[in-house]
Design a protein that fits this description.
The longest helix has 18 residues. α1 packs antiparallel against α7, α3 packs antiparallel against α8 and α6 crosses α8. The chain has 9 helices and no strands. With 189 residues, the protein is mainly α. It has one domain: Orthogonal Bundle (TerB-like), CATH 1.10.3680.
């Protein structure tokens, strides 16, 4: 990986861990990071009781945020081991230690199986069922856009998946344009 690629990945990771810079709303922080904190508390198979701090709604939100980016990453039909390793690294780094590597790896395994079994359209609908708040919907688009830029920019196939996600959330196409422009601008800094 070139130095430019590593610099871009570091910028993407930093932006994923920050609150979105929406001019119309100030948030408490990165929704990905906040949801990851709860997801990281998910009980393992051997645990009998749930530890405090686990919120199943926040965990579902985390999974939907990661799945949306995963769907965009798979838009071109290719997701090799190198792309997967980079994807997992970015998610882990953005979560700042809230989620274990084994958890992200297992989640990506599950997402891979679900996409193969259900197909893209059904997975987009499933993400749409989980994402019910407008601010979460917009954050899904921002995260998906950031991860698309990490691989060198948003391709036509990736943009199509982002637009289909936006449509599932009931968002206008202009929201996609605005969000992707904000992502591009944020990565220029």
């Amino acid at each position: 990986m070139s130095a430019a690629d590593q610099t871009l990945l570091r910028k993407v990771i930093t932006k994923l861990g920050e609150a979105p810079a929406y001019p119309d709303r100030a948030g408490p922080g990165s929704i990905l990071k906040l949801a990851a904190a709860s997801y990281g508390f998910a009980p393992g198979a051997d645990e009998v009781t749930m530890p405090t701090g686990f919120d199943p709604h926040a965990a579902a939100l985390f999974e939907a945020l990661v799945e949306s980016a995963y769907l965009v990453a798979n838009a071109d039909g290719e997701f090799d081991e190198g792309e997967r390793a980079a994807f997992e690294h970015v998610v882990l780094s953005a979560c700042a230690g809230s989620v274990a590597q084994r958890q992200v790896h297992a989640l990506v395994d599950d997402l891979n199986d679900q996409l193969a079994e259900d197909g893209l359209e059904k997975r987009i609908k499933m993400v749409g069922r989980t994402i019910t708040k407008p601010e979460h919907a917009r954050e899904v688009l921002r995260i998906a856009g950031l991860l698309a830029y990490a691989s060198g920019g948003v391709t036509g196939d990736e943009r199509d998946v982002i637009e289909r996600l936006a449509g599932e959330f009931g968002l206008e196409r202009t929201v996609v344009d605005t969000t992707l422009a904000e992502v591009a601008h944020a990565l220029e800094d």
